[in-house]
Amino acid sequence: MTQATVGERIREVGFLRRQLTRPELAAIAGAILVFAFFAITAGDQGFLTFGGTISYLQVAAQLGIVAVPVAMLMIAGEFDLSVGSMVGAAGIIIAITVTQYGWPLFAGVLLACAVALLVGFFNGYLVIKTGLPSFIVTLAMLFALRGLTIGFSRLITGRTQIGGLSEATQGDVLFPIFAGEVAGIPVSVFWWIGLAVLGTWVLQRTAFGNWIFGSGGDPVAARNVGVPVNRVKIILFMCTALSAALLATIQVMDAGSADVLRGELLELQAIAASVIGGVLLTGGYGSVVGAVFGALIFGMVQQGIFFTGVNTDWFLVFVGVMLLVAVLFNNVIRNRASKG
Amino acid sequence: MTQATVGERIREVGFLRRQLTRPELAAIAGAILVFAFFAITAGDQGFLTFGGTISYLQVAAQLGIVAVPVAMLMIAGEFDLSVGSMVGAAGIIIAITVTQYGWPLFAGVLLACAVALLVGFFNGYLVIKTGLPSFIVTLAMLFALRGLTIGFSRLITGRTQIGGLSEATQGDVLFPIFAGEVAGIPVSVFWWIGLAVLGTWVLQRTAFGNWIFGSGGDPVAARNVGVPVNRVKIILFMCTALSAALLATIQVMDAGSADVLRGELLELQAIAASVIGGVLLTGGYGSVVGAVFGALIFGMVQQGIFFTGVNTDWFLVFVGVMLLVAVLFNNVIRNRASKG
Amino acid sequence: GCGQQGGQQEGEGEQGGGGGLVPREEINIEFVTHASPDPFWSVVQNGVNQAAEDMGVNVNYRELDSYDIPQLQRNLEAAIAADPDGMVVSIPDPDALNDKIREATENGIPVVVINAGENDWRDVGALTYVGQTEYDAGVAAGERMAQEGVRSALCINHEQGNITLDMRCEGFEKGLGGQVKQIAVQPDPTAARNGIKTALRQNPDVEGLLTLNPGIADQALRALEESGRSEDVTFATFDLSPSVLRAVSRGEMLFATDQQQWLQGYLPIVLLTNYIQYGVRPVNTEIPTGPAFITEENAEQVIDLSRQGIR
Amino acid sequence: MERTATPVIELRNVSKYFGSVIALEDISMDVRAGEVMCLLGDNGAGKSTLIKIVSGVHPPDRGSLLVEGEEVSFSSPRDAMDRGIATVYQDLAMIPLMGISRNFFLGREPTKGAGPFRRFDVKLADRITREELDKIGIQVRDTAQPVATLSGGERQSVAIARAVYFGAKVLILDEPTSALGVKQAAIVLRYIARAREQGIAVVFISHNVHHAYAIGDRFTILNHGRSMGTFEKEEIGLQELERLMAGGAELERLEAELSGSGE
Amino acid sequence: MERTATPVIELRNVSKYFGSVIALEDISMDVRAGEVMCLLGDNGAGKSTLIKIVSGVHPPDRGSLLVEGEEVSFSSPRDAMDRGIATVYQDLAMIPLMGISRNFFLGREPTKGAGPFRRFDVKLADRITREELDKIGIQVRDTAQPVATLSGGERQSVAIARAVYFGAKVLILDEPTSALGVKQAAIVLRYIARAREQGIAVVFISHNVHHAYAIGDRFTILNHGRSMGTFEKEEIGLQELERLMAGGAELERLEAELSGSGE
Ligand SMILES: Nc1ncnc2c1ncn2[C@@H]1O[C@H](COP(=O)(O)OP(=O)(O)OP(=O)(O)O)[C@@H](O)[C@H]1O
Ligand SMILES: Nc1ncnc2c1ncn2[C@@H]1O[C@H](COP(=O)(O)OP(=O)(O)OP(=O)(O)O)[C@@H](O)[C@H]1O
Ligand SMILES: [Mg+2]
Ligand SMILES: [Mg+2]
């Protein structure tokens, strides 16, 4: 009545089919579809070249760096709409401290990170203490942070775009870490992969990861069995803000300039990448790998159109349709796999 | 053991306190706070005048017209991110048919409505059939619709902004219905109030309203007791799209022009207004009245800064902080009321 | 120093173009700027399309959804990776973009800079520069308004943070030589109109009003009317549209600046085509397309062109 | 007590799989009007899955479902309800954040007025809800109270009262008494008896042998997704039934250990 | 069977209100080590609310809670768990979309490795989960199966196994046997008996008088949020207990109606 009985009730299901029911693998299928599409339609126009690959990888990487913690926060049941504004704010902080006050680069970066951690903590604290939906708290933060960035930037420099950082950054020891290249591949790609691996490890292999799933799946139940739900959420809010500061650092070093609009709509893209990758909007389910491939799909679609030579007027139609097709394809794969 | 026993277990709770636990009344409290703030800081600068009142009411009305069905859709557990793009698309449809093809205005409006209903149906059908999250389906629609608008507008007119409708519209019989004034109050305000009353009636007093709550609260359970969840959702998607077409009509007539970028970010504002008004992002709970006051808060905050004379560089800070304060105040009221 | 650079360019040009053997239908030009789908850039794009047709070359016109420099960097990279025969670019942020553009010129891709980048086009090794900087256009607008005796004005910014709009306001202030207050409004027409109305009430002393987009100009016109300030406020706008031109011709507006941005789209394609085919180009000079003003006198004539998206 | 020849509900060789799990394999069963069919079986035996097939939640993967002799394939629970099948699901099918009376009438709202003014008759709904719950021994303070704030037993009572109120031809109850107090459980059993008298076919799932034996006319026993046969009440004794349900002698040993344990 | 003087848990004049609802009014109760305290009462009597106060979910609105003679105020369930109080909630406190073993260990994950490499020992968790569920008579096919896809009884078994595994000093069980089959229910009762032998204090809620009488040492009866007193097993007979639970004579009438009904 033990093992035999269990065996009795299990049907044979193929290995491949079993693998494909995992959420991230469906997102991978979508990414492959998009890649195949561009390889066929635009393969001879540079999409497959090294430069072409880098161009979409870099877009995907910059989105992915933020999408990884955003996905984890969403799995924990909360949104952070303020990441985009945080990118703008952190960039301006670095640019102003370095160009206007002559701080060394590392000090500017540290200050940006500190501010980010504070903002993240504040977001989380407010959500926890007031019980308000994080959507609205971080939406208010989105406005406030962007507004502070514009206000201070104009107050101090009289402008909304600050250049002239190239001299300060390019010789700096930090430069190769944030904006350098390894074998022609921008380091942001490595940051992306690194964060993805770290995020996956935390989510799948640590107690904290288990708490993340619990906090999002049913916060009351999780609290009842002793998960420090509040702590989990606040830490994740701090992570998303910190990832925004990281992205800002990369962008500032890469561009040698900052402007107050950097990161606009990034929050939506990060959420979209996560959802494409199978993260549930209601929390409690999803994977970092899924979000990573969601970002990759986004990057390929956005840059891929370049190589197809389609009229730019129809660019957004293309993005919309490709997005839908990729996600539908995920879905077909997933359903096929989980069905009889 | 009947009524007596029930009475035994009930404590006295004041009337006011009981009323305040209702979600919409907390949103009203937030609106009153915001109003009071401006009345005090900018009351002598025209905020309290008739013209000042109209200036924010009109902005609130235009947001509110979309926020009402969006709130209902959210209560039914779905998002519609494509309303903003729909506003742009409907506006361009009206403008092109009228200025380029010389259609009568009513025909252009009808076509815009028909397209909106189709888009709404398509959104709903896709969400239902594929089981994909509406967030991602309507995000794809957001891109695709905006892209089609840009593409067709440029293809047909070579421009992205189409003006010169004033002549065509101002004499039309439709003009007073969509862009006229009654006793100095723009009709959009009446549309807003009318839709709010209709929405509240449907939600609170009809079987369909009960189905909306059920579909959002637990679609599986609702389906199990016989609610036609799919039909409810598709109808609501069609309503949100139709409200976008209505708003577009009002804007085109009022502004005398259409622009492919009209309605950008409207979807976020509509969702935010609903959440401010107490609608749950996860569905199943909320009220139309709440969303209406959410829109009012948004309108007052957005237009109020002009009366205070604060440097508009700080515009967004102001929006963020006021939003947060209003929502926090809601929350304090709600908690006070429901506690001990 | 300039002459020397020009010389280098010629050397490279010989390898890249020259010969006159490249058939026009095989020429691919990437047009990568900070354009967005707004009325100004629409005209540029129409110029591009016309030139592509006239020249018989292929042009990929690329724009941004919103002002997003990192995205523009990526677009440049993608364009370079597509290995085009020529590129048209703008340089709204030299720190971020110069390196990438230089990479293109160093790879032998001929480049023309338009709209923004007046001070950088030589530095990145471009063939020439076509256009007028937003700042200079603003200065011209300010000077024009100062002639009317305007001492203080409002500058209505409908997209806060977009540097090109900032430049217009900044230049305007410089040119006016008086007080200019920037007012940020939402791009939504009703919100913009009501915001402008309130701002006019808050600033009863202003004598001038400048908008940066014809759509907002329509609303500002109504705001002026509805608050009864049409008479005492001098009003002008950037860029054209039929309804703006009509207002100008009726004298409701002082002027509309016309950067003749059609040329910013048209000329670079012509220049590049000729350079690619025959190796010929203007030497060491830039081609200004502005400032030009449309006033009561000439407004009627351009309404039709504006409707077609040429002015 | 009338018994007709054609069963109201009949299942023929029904199988149901969830991915690799065999939930049901080759089950045949029928229920006639005016009889109580008890579905018995261990945890995870497949009882809930079986009744979800009958009430239109899951389509069977194999086999056929007949209602009044006619083969049907329900595409939604609505179809089953339209054929007079009312169900109390084990997980209750209620909307936590909705009020009691709104939940009670969800999907079958009483209306008043006509044409575009047809509206949900909230007063009537409130009154009926209060009455029906009163009958089952639950006093509600406020029919607008969210179901989430009810106690486990109160929630179950609402679900049962609803099914009984709407049950036309077939009443399906999945462990209806599990969270109920002694008094409420007795009332529910009496409900079932009354339904049978009215010629309604009842499918009743319980782990309580006493409840089942008291009210059941026939017993179908499931074990690991397979049927162990259907027994008439006359064929089988309480002891025998208990042994079949628990699946063996192990139980007796256990019971002996717990001195004086009833049941 | 040891009994100490100071109760492990003591409630003094505890009241709890939800808005206008009086859930509990002036309740006093204590539980000692090595005894099973049964909480009995009608649906909605306030049993679940009472144990939620003990396990730190709700703070009491009035009155005090003592653990081992020391007054405490739990700010979260974590505090209660840290004092060795393990609870099976009536609504189970499980995350539907999470796998079985992740749910089992949620909040108390076993780890391996040290420092930054400390990680959730998934293998160990899987093995223990499988073993513990095996003991309670549930075979799981895949410990990563989402809890939402388990049958009602399987889910309850997971919750019980978890509490028993982690229960250090006090074990609180809110209707643990309601969804269980005969065999599994018997196993759970045996668990409780074993816990008592080990000197653990047990609070046990049930509507099944037989289960309660079989295992309980003392009985506290709640009625409409008020205590009707605590009785030692010796003081009270099964019949008497049943009458107290059901709250009157109505029940007897009902039972008579249902001929031959057990329980
Ligand atoms: N959606 C699903 N996906 C995978 N397995 C499922 C699903 N639903 C049910 N099962 C499995 O099918 C089996 C039968 O479940 P079912 O709910 O029918 O049992 P039951 O007889 O009602 O048990 P109980 O008496 O405990 O309620 C269980 O082992 C369960 O784990
Ligand atoms: N959050 C809440 N808000 C309002 N009322 C509540 C809340 N929680 C419980 N109640 C009410 O308090 C009373 C006691 O509920 P409780 O869950 O403690 O009952 P119980 O004794 O466990 O009943 P059962 O045996 O049915 O599980 C019930 O009438 C219930 O409706
Ligand atoms: Mg079951
Ligand atoms: Mg209970």
Automatic annotation (TrEMBL), chains A, B:
InterPro entries: ABC_transp_permease (IPR001851). It comes from the Bacteria. CDD domains: TM_PBP1_transp_AraH_like. GO terms for cellular component: plasma membrane. Its main location: membrane. It is found in: Cell membrane. The chain crosses the membrane at residues 25-43, 55-76, 83-103, 109-128, 135-157, 177-203, 234-253, 265-281, 288-308, 314-333. It is a multi-pass membrane protein. Pfam families: BPD_transp_2. GO terms for molecular function: transmembrane transporter activity. Keywords: Cell inner membrane, Cell membrane, Membrane, Sugar transport, Transmembrane, Transmembrane helix, Transport. PANTHER family: ABC TRANSPORTER PERMEASE PROTEIN YPHD-RELATED-RELATED, XYLOSE TRANSPORT SYSTEM PERMEASE PROTEIN XYLH. Part of the binding-protein-dependent transport system for D-xylose. Probably responsible for the translocation of the substrate across the membrane. This is Xylose transport system permease protein XylH.
UniProtKB/TrEMBL annotation, chains D, E:
Keywords: ATP-binding, Nucleotide-binding. Coiled coil: none annotated. Pfam families: ABC_tran. Residues 9-249 form the ABC transporter domain. It comes from the Bacteria. GO terms for molecular function: ATP binding; ATP hydrolysis activity. SMART domains: AAA (SM00382). This is Sugar ABC transporter ATP-binding protein. PROSITE patterns: ABC_TRANSPORTER_2.
